[in-house]
Amino acid sequence: MSTDRSVASTLRRLGSFRVWLVALVAVVALAALSAPSTAGPAQRVSHLESLVKCPSCQDLSVAQSTSSSALAVRHQIVSMVDRGESDTQILTTIEAAYGTSILLSPSTSGVGTLLWLLPTLVFAGLVATLVVLRRRR
After folding, report:
1. What is the 3-state secondary structure (H, E, C) of 91-137?
2. What CA dihedral angle connects 44, 50, 54 and 57, to 10 degrees?
């Protein structure tokens, strides 16, 4: 009888693991599919414009705004793409000119790294806690 329980318990754990594994694969696939394509200059410009905040608007990207400051940043992005600069170079130049708050997503260096890692670490801690609590039962 105890063997049946341990088999059932093992099967439940494997089933739960499979669900998490499928969810992880789905998230990775979605991230890979939604990653910007660098196929051409127009796609790069569009992607970069969606990452930069309008200097004179609140919470709008330069792609969404029609203000003169947004148009100036758009023109700057287009000319930098035409010169062959990398996305990182373009974003760094714009950030240097307008300040760190010009980017809609936090930087991936310095304090920005903490902003990217903190949610992942919290999630990993919650998963570890759940695993430990389930094993105690």
Report:
1. HHHHHHHHCHHHECCCCCCCHHHHHHHHHHHHHHHHHHHHHHHHHHC
2. 160
* pLDDT 10s digits, 60-87: 999 999 999 999 999 999 999 999 999 9
| CB proximity list for 122: less than 8 A, separation 6 or greater | none
Token pair recorded at residue 36: 């910007």
| pLDDT in the model for residue 137 | 75
Let me know: does 59 contact 102? Beta carbons within 8 Å: no
39-105 placed in CATH 1.10.8.640: yes
Residue 24 CA: distances (Å) to CA of 17, 19, 127: 10, 9, 13
What is this structure's pTM?
Answer: 0.54
